Amino acid sequence: TERWEAEARRMAERNSLLIAQAGLASGRLEESERRRLKAEANVAELGERMREVVARAGQSRSEVQDQVVTLEEEVVRLGKERQETGRRVAALKEREEVLQMEAEA
Fold first, then answer.
1. CA separation for the pair 39, 65 (Å, rounded)
2. What is the C-alpha separation between 3 and 8, in angstroms, rounded?
3. Is-above-0.70 flag for pTM?
4. Residue 43 pLDDT greater than 80, yes or no
5. Pairs from 25-34 (Cβ < 8 Å, separation ≥ 24)
6. Predicted local distance difference test score (pLDDT) of residue 53
7. What is the distance between the alpha carbons of residues 72 and 61, in angstroms, rounded to a whole number?
């Protein structure tokens, strides 16, 4: 019977050890699950931030494109004004020549 009792004690100790190991493994598994959930939350947050940055970049790009169009329109307008000023200068020079010829006559 001593042998049986010793065997029963060893089995009880082994069972206690296995239960403790299972508890540790369960704790590690829970910690691993918490880390996984936290990582998923971080990925979701980063994805949202990235979408915000892309949206702002798109908005900025649109604003820049609008400014480019405005500048192009301004260049066209200034070109037309330059042509008109050139015509006025030519007309004034012609008038000046006419007046000078009349003054000499």
1. 38
2. 8
3. no
4. yes
5. none
6. 85
7. 16
